[in-house]
Amino acid sequence: MSQQMLLLTAVSMWLFAGYFLAEATYYNHHMYNRYRALNHHANMDNQLPPEVPVVTEAVAPRSVNFSRTFYGIMFDAGSTGTRIHIYKFIQKDPVELPVLDNEMYHAVKPGLSAYADMPEVGGETIRQLLKVAKKTIPKEQWIQTPVVLKATAGLRLLPQEKAKALLNEVKEIFDDSPFFVPNNSVTIMNGTNEGLLAWVTVNFLTGHLYAKTRKTVGILDLGGGSTQITFLPRLKKTVLTAPPNYIAKINMFNSTFELYTHSYLGNGLIAARLATLGALGADGLDWKVFRSSCLPKKFREDWSFGGLTYKVSGIPDGFAGYKLCYQEVMRVVKGIVHQPFEVKGSSIFFAFSYYYDRAVESGLIDGSRGGTVEVRDFKKRAKEGKTLDVLLFSKEHSGQSPAAHIAQT
């Protein structure tokens, strides 16, 4: 079966908008005070939309002239960079979902994990990004605009005490800012929630959460430290045969979605490179050179990730190419990736992050207009060998946050 990938640059909203979607539709709902009376509390730790309790009394909505504009600030603390997303939402009806009106995006490199031994320096990158928020959001809105940071695989891979020091530094900076700081505003997001919120965001943007049908789309996210897959199974067999903890339920908008979701920690683009090179957790970084057949013979370069620098090269006296590289990679991923049968059929997935970057950098799509490619085109381009070094060791994260649309037919 052919597998087609339509890569879109128009959608720049990152997965964490799902958090604000949950907040906006809960705390600003015309029945919110009634919910509070029933002692309902939104789960601020998991950042998932709350399960709405049954309310027997009819409560009249606000005036038909109701219209509200609000903002949200989300920091994505990834393994290769820290990105700020400033969302502007408009809600024209109190009983309807808000609409994303605009997003301001800015990124800095490296990621917070690179400052594991210098949390104060890492915190300074957050201060600089908050200046962008102050310039974007009207001053009168600051006090009611929530600011949240969610760290992903980069901090999950750090020792606990170092990750905690970084998070504490960020929390102090948030507390000193003029913005609203919710409880648990600075946390490390687990892989399950990362996938679930990406799924909520993409289906919100594509209008599938508004639809009465269950024709949702799946998501594929390739980050630096981990990779996620999330979709709504059509077959009961998928649910029954999934490994433990691969199925998660999410209650949202009077519906329950039983999703297949999993995050492969250590299998993001950068972490997988380390594993392929045999450098993951290795000692002797000052003198040791990590070689791979995935790189051209004459390639040699210092490569930094997570605050560490690695010396990497091709194999000068050996061979390089697709087959040898494929064998190296398979030794790393074989046996750890579960492949649900139904995704081989007519499923639709949206893919983003490094999926998009690599498609652009390998010349498969136009960087501004996007395009449609087949998954096998990546394989073909790698076999050609002309872009092998680009695919593996090109500049990380272009500073954009586009999405990719993968249609499997």
From TrEMBL:
Keyword Endoplasmic reticulum: yes
Gene Ontology terms, MF aspect: ATP binding; nucleoside diphosphate phosphatase activity
EC number(s) recorded for this UniProt protein: 3.6.1.6
Active site residues of this protein: 194 (proton acceptor)
Main location: endoplasmic reticulum
Domain of life assignment: Eukaryota
Entry cofactors: Ca(2+); Mg(2+)
Pathway: Protein modification; protein glycosylation
Reaction equations catalysed: ADP + H2O = AMP + phosphate + H(+); a ribonucleoside 5'-diphosphate + H2O = a ribonucleoside 5'-phosphate + phosphate + H(+); CDP + H2O = CMP + phosphate + H(+); GDP + H2O = GMP + phosphate + H(+)
Entries under PROSITE patterns matching the protein: GDA1_CD39_NTPASE (PS01238)
GO CC entries: endoplasmic reticulum; extracellular region
Compartment(s): Endoplasmic reticulum; Secreted
Positions that bind ATP: 224-228
Keywords: ATP-binding, Calcium, Disulfide bond, Endoplasmic reticulum, Glycoprotein, Hydrolase, Magnesium, Nucleotide-binding, Secreted, Signal
InterPro entries: GDA1_CD39_NTPase
Pfam families from the UniProt entry: GDA1_CD39
Subunit structure: Monomer; active form. Homodimer; disulfide-linked. Homodimers are enzymatically inactive.
Physiological role: Hydrolyzes nucleoside diphosphates with a preference for GDP, IDP and UDP compared to ADP and CDP. In the lumen of the endoplasmic reticulum, hydrolyzes UDP that acts as an end-product feedback inhibitor of the UDP-Glc:glycoprotein glucosyltransferases. UMP can be transported back by an UDP-sugar antiporter to the cytosol where it is consumed to regenerate UDP-glucose. Therefore, it positively regulates protein reglucosylation by clearing UDP from the ER lumen and by promoting the regeneration of UDP-glucose.
Family designation: Belongs to the GDA1/CD39 NTPase family.
Protein name: nucleoside diphosphate phosphatase
Species: Cyprinus carpio carpio
Lineage per the UniProt record: Eukaryota, Metazoa, Chordata, Craniata, Vertebrata
